[in-house]
Amino acid sequence: MEDDGAKKEVMVTSMKAEYIEHSIEVTHFATSDMEAQGLGMPGLDDAADVPTEMTVSVEEQNPNDGRLEVMELKHSIDKKKKRIRAYSQKFRKEWIQMGEFQGWLSEGSAPDRAYCTVCSKELLAGKSELLKHANGKKHKKRLEEGHINMTVPTDLSSVLDGTAIPHVLQIVDLRSDTVTQPSREMKEAMFDAPVGDDVFSEDPTVKALEEKVARMLEKEAALFVPSGTMANLICVLTHCWGRGSEVIVGDQSHLHLWAQGGIAQVGSVHHRSIRNLPDGTFSLQDLRSLVRGDDPHWPVTTLLGTLCNELNLPLHMDGARLINASVALGTSPARLVQWCDSVSLCLNKGLGAPMGSLVVGTKEFITRALRVRKVLGGGLHQAGMFAAAGIYALDHIAPRLSLDHTNARAIAQSVSEVHSSAITVDLKGVQTNVVLLHCDNIRVNAKKLCQRLASVTDAESEEMGEQIVVMMLPITETTVRLMMHCDVKKDDIKAVIKKLKYIIQEYDNMMYLEYK
């Protein structure tokens, strides 16, 4: 380099860096054409990536005689902060076949994570850490207990990455039609929605939704509430305004089984149940026998869970999936509720909205329901975002519900064609997006079937050539429910059918005596 300290342009043809204990400052590098020559050099200004001291050997052509000369450039950065070295080991797939890890090791949720399917635990991907885990007492005990059969954990959070996308498996969630994710278009509608304070009745998007639903059901007014459970409770409390009231509900109805007894717990309303027939209806004669007369020893029957104008009593419909019923029957939802004094309509069951339901009835009924909503804590302020999701769902998701019904029928048909004695389905009962699978309770019950569908064995993975996890819901000891929804795609249906046929064949091959 020149003695006067001027900066000199050099063409780098080869470069080698070494860490050294001493340091000499480098004044300048000319890196022109380095990328074209396939060379790379760390940025000297990036204090996080450049070592404290380094030396670089550079070949330079002498302009006088054309000979190549080697010169060394040395670089030092005065770092006041303490440098921290971080060790990171990436998971290697070949480890899965190693004797110490075979049968229980799989990839984790990130490149530097591994997963133990025996302990249902995520681990650092370092080989020493994995060996330490393999030699642990708890791990060995679980291996001895036979947990090694399953290569996929039931807790699916560990097999999902940060974006909730499976990195190894195909996961199909059919537990409910409430597990859907808002689409990009629905989110855009929510983002763009004008809002106001709905407690002051000043939210324009909420008003638009309420008016839209009231027109659709041909009722006078509607009220937006957070959930279906609250909607039904509001309707009961609005009808049963005085103390000592009673309602009659089906013994298999949601209001009777799945609402925590809220009408009694919160509203002090007595209720009597009537036996539902297999198709959900019940005997009108049984209904007449349950209606109370005018006796001071009895509560006053105020509300019925079914149509009975003859008894001159108000009628409420739990319309959680009213739109599905309308599509399946090929009639308008207004016709289905024309004799009802009140209706609840869910936006997040089958319609794909993140939340919200509506109470529908006369203006007088809604005025009273508004007071009940307030005391239950259902008044929302800037609720327009959620109302916008409901409007989008009614305009864009409702017209495609018939596809959900077709998919449900396809799965039920595939189960029926297997002619299994362990797992059966009633095709006549599959009319909308709901399918019920019935277990023989000898070889398998509902809970075990759901656990098996949510797991993958080594033999299954090898035979099927893929890993499929299907999530369903046990609703009784012998009944499993699966529900179609707008997030289920064509490939998901094929995967579910493939998985179900494999599992059903597995149970059909079992001997009865082994599972008594």
TrEMBL record:
Organism expressing this protein natively = Cherax quadricarinatus
User: Any idea which UniProt keywords this protein has?
Assistant: Lyase, Pyridoxal phosphate
Q: Record's family?
A: Belongs to the threonine aldolase family.
Please list the residue ranges annotated as the Aromatic amino acid beta-eliminating lyase/threonine aldolase domain. Answer: 173-303, 306-437
Cofactor(s) needed by this chain: pyridoxal 5'-phosphate
What the entry lists under Pfam families is as follows:
Beta_elim_lyase
Give the matching PANTHER family: L-THREONINE ALDOLASE, L-THREONINE ALDOLASE-RELATED
Q: What is the name of the protein in this document? A: Aromatic amino acid beta-eliminating lyase/threonine aldolase domain-containing protein
